[in-house]
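Obj: model holo form, ligand = S-adenosylmethionine.
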Amino acid sequence: MSSDELRRPLWSAIERELLGGGFHPSRRLGQNFLREPRAVAAVVAAAELDPGARVVEIGPGYGVLSWELAARGAELIAVEIDPRLAEIVEELLAPFPNARVLRGDALAGKHELAPLWTDAIASWSAWSLVANLPYSIASPVIALVARLPVPPRRIVVTVQLEVAERLLAPPGGGDYGPLSVRVELAYRGVLVRKLSPGSFSPQPDVDSAIVRLDLRDDRPTGDDWPALDRLVDTLFQQRRKAVGGVLRKAVGSAETTTELLAAHGIEPDLRPERLAPEALLRLARDPRWKAVAGGE
Ligand code: SAM
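Output (holo structure tokens):
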């Protein structure tokens, strides 16, 4: 089936019916539905999906994006927490044997993805995450999928503009922080398009953006993350102090700290916020740091 053979649902009618039936979009669940057709098309185009491509969508809502993905032949798993929306999207996707809705929370706590869907994709060797992410869980979802044993090879998401800026921030600026480091080490990112509140219904209070992230071949491995996490958390807690001083406290030896920084060509009086992701990964991989982080 292609989208030309299928009639695209009338989204305004679905929304009217939903609201008429007493549905109130939840702020807490970030229920701002993407309604601008060109924005939906931009998300789908940026995903560059071949027919049969495997896709996870977190938060399908009433299915505006899900329908486009399924109609293009994607093997889709959509994870929706709100049972009322899950029911609608299940009905909408019923004609597509290639699409499945999983009901529940995409996260199992603050720092873990829910096995509800990670188990369902355990056999997938290549997949993409395509979603208009709920604002409250966008950052953890992106940071957590980046460290799955098989991370998405592409992520195309609509997020709050402020989150997009953090995802793509270069070192040295105010937006650059732990999220930037964690995501930029695993992905090469671009801002596809900014979106004004008018692209959504109901309109959010903030601007948004579509971001595309492509998986790097030379990303950190599973073994790198514990030492990297410890390093990033240590350094960014005191991002404006001198890196030498901050590390000395964590390492517990001035001599080892001097050796560690010299080995990687890092000036001790540099501020942590000026260290590029690659420099942080090199430091994290150094056995002198791994010993501190408990990795060796
Ligand atoms: N994709 C739809 C669209 O673009 O119109 C809806 C996007 S809306 C920004 C976010 C969706 O995520 C809502 O349907 C909301 O119920 C769902 N959601 C919120 N928190 C969730 C969670 N923790 N797990 C799964 N879905 C969630």
